Amino acid sequence: MSLLSTDAPAPRSQPAHSGPPPEVLDEIAAAWERGQGSLRGSLELYFVSNPALGRAWGELRLPDGKRLTSIAASEAIAIACGA
């Protein structure tokens, strides 16, 4: 008698997720809104992501859109939260 049963359910694979979960995207969107208010008139805070790399970061830009610098996602979120 085999230890493998033909009646056992087949294992299920989980679909690969591309990008952060929806609740994280919601938090990033809320942080972006807060950041825009605190920097308005001098700098603009942008959140950028590369889903293929699974990475996100922030950018500080002038009002004309010129990028000044890239910053870590944690720094961008801290700025957006008023830290």
Could you characterize the architecture of this molecule?
- There is one protein chain.
- By secondary structure, this protein is an alpha+beta fold.
- The chain has one domain.
- It is built from 2 helices and 3 strands, in the order αβββα.
- It has helices at residues 22-39, 73-80; strands at 44-50, 55-61, 67-72.
- It has a 3-stranded antiparallel β-sheet with strand order 1-2-3.
- A hairpin with a 5-residue loop joins strand 2 and strand 3 (67-72).
- Helix 1 crosses helix 2 (73-80).
- The longest helix is centred in the middle third of the chain and has 18 residues, at 22-39.
- The protein is globular, with a radius of gyration of 21 Å.
- The protein starts with 21 loop residues before the first helix and ends with a helix.
